Amino acid sequence: MQVRVVNVNKRYVGIAALDDVSLNVEPGELVALLGPSGSGKTTLLRTIAGLEIPDSGKIFFNDEDTSEGRIQKRRVGFVFQHYALFKHMRVMDNIAFGLRARPRKNKPKESEIKRRVMELLDLVQLSGLERRFPAQLSGGQRQRVALARALAIEPSVLLLDEPFGALDARVRKDLRRWLREIHDRTGHTTLFVTHDQEEALELADRVVVMNKGKIEQSATPDEIYDEPATPFVFSFIGESSVIPVQVGNGRATLDERVLELDVGGLPDGPAQLYLRPEDVSLVTDGSPGIPGLVVSTRRIGGMRRVTIECGMLRHRIEFDAPAENQIENSQRLTIQISGGRVYGAGAEGYETERLASSATSDFKWAKAEGWPT
Ligand code: ADP
Ligand code: MG
């Protein structure tokens, strides 16, 4: 089943929960909807499920315009973060619920329902637990029952809204891998909501990044990380530093030092340079670079994550140095920038506001200290 969302708008009082959203999910694809809380992920999922009616725009299941059909016809499997299993029902009856609730003419025979329940229990690796009640299961097991229940109706589309959100980190990781395996075996068209970038990047064929009711980018996990389309995507995914630069004559400069970076077609004027830790390296052989002052270091695995402040406005840049480098707070050092992306000044990153306000308040301090420029 292909799902096509075309120019969908949904407003609540004072807020555009979905702002002209268009999205295709191809048959059998596993797509993650990723974005901060309040970005519209749940609204989009509920609209696809037919639980919300869009103010405008259309949703197609294959070539069928869903606004013309009844919700039941969509055959959507839905799993929520807190999916209330029926507490008074055994696992097997929870899973069988959707099948037993069908109108008589579509209802499988009881023996067929039993067979299907056992098959699903095997799929979600809960065989032997069919007679338990939800209260006798762990959180992870309960979510697996919820998924089996969603799969029981043979959904044309599977919609999962932060299904592992309430579980602890270890269990989440296991279930993530497990969900991917189930998806590969059953091949359902699946939309998976998460605010956890690691979950999205590890699990999905394609990641759709949402912000304030809009889709910022829809691309493979590699593209999302390596070629973020907007400052928001850059700063929401992975680690990043942002510093203001000047673009002029097709080059970006930082405090009058020219950076070897592609500025695309950006117009002359102020711009923002977004950096990953790996875009920055320590200069140890005395060659020229950007001077900075170490403000913190911490050990991350085999590397040392170093935060420096540089330039008159004490912009913070984070990078990784080999762990054996003894780098200390207040030490002066020189860095080189070998990558990163330059975006126009207008667009906003995930944390731009916070960083910008701290930079402004630091300005007076920098002048008072006579920080070199
Ligand atoms: P997410 O799932 O990404 O956290 P939601 O889709 O739940 O985001 O919400 C998007 C925006 O719409 C939020 O600002 C939220 O407060 C608002 N919203 C969602 N549902 C309702 C509702 N039923 N009534 C009013 N506002 C809502
Ligand atoms: Mg939500």
Task: Kindly describe this structure.
With 373 residues, the protein is an alpha+beta fold. It folds into 2 domains: 3-230, Rossmann fold (3-Layer(aba) Sandwich), CATH 3.40.50; 241-275 and 277-339, Nucleic acid-binding proteins (OB fold (Dihydrolipoamide Acetyltransferase, E2P), Beta Barrel), CATH 2.40.50.140. The chain is 27% helix and 33% strand. It has helices at residues 41-49, 91-100, 110-123, 139-152, 169-186, 197-203, 221-226, 231-236, 352-369; strands spanning 3-12, 15-25, 30-34, 56-61, 64-65, 76-79, 157-161, 189-194, 206-211, 214-219, 241-248, 251-254, 257-259, 269-275, 280-282, 290-300, 303-310, 315-322, 332-337, 341-344. A hairpin with a 2-residue loop joins strand 4 and strand 5. The chain is elongated and about 80 Å long. Residues 352-373 have low confidence and may be disordered. The structure holds adenosine-5'-diphosphate and magnesium ion. The site of adenosine-5'-diphosphate has 11 residues, from strand 2 and helix 1.
